[in-house]
Amino acid sequence: MQENVLQHSKEMKRKLDYSAIVQSSSFQQLMNAKKAFILPASLFFLAFYFTLPILTSYSTILNQPAIGSISWAWVFAFAQFIMTWTLCILYSKRAATFDNMIEKIKQEIQQRS
């Protein structure tokens, strides 16, 4: 049984027209949706991440006490952990949407063949 499934999977891979898949509107929608999330999230991450070393190297603004003897640099550094966790959670939730789009593409391919 498992051999038949593997054999069928190998045959499907040989028959797929990847150029047609890439040019399909469903695939283009998937790529646009991924770019619409990943690009801004990555740019925000990089800007937020590099702000700490830049501000600590070229200014003293983060040296001011925020809470007691804890400076704003420590608050900002802790905020980076929160930002990373938040982006991971957001991406995990958005990935479910991407997975649904991929399943739709796979169904379209199966209907064509």
From TrEMBL:
Q: Which Pfam families match?
A: DUF485 (PF04341)
Q: Which domain of life, per UniProt?
A: Bacteria
Question: Which key words tag this protein in UniProt?
Answer: Membrane, Transmembrane, Transmembrane helix
Spell out the InterPro entries in the cross-references: DUF485
Q: Where are the transmembrane segments?
A: 36-58, 70-91
Q: Does the keyword Membrane apply?
A: yes
Q: What is this protein called?
A: Uncharacterized membrane protein (DUF485 family)
Q: Which organism is it from?
A: Thermolongibacillus altinsuensis
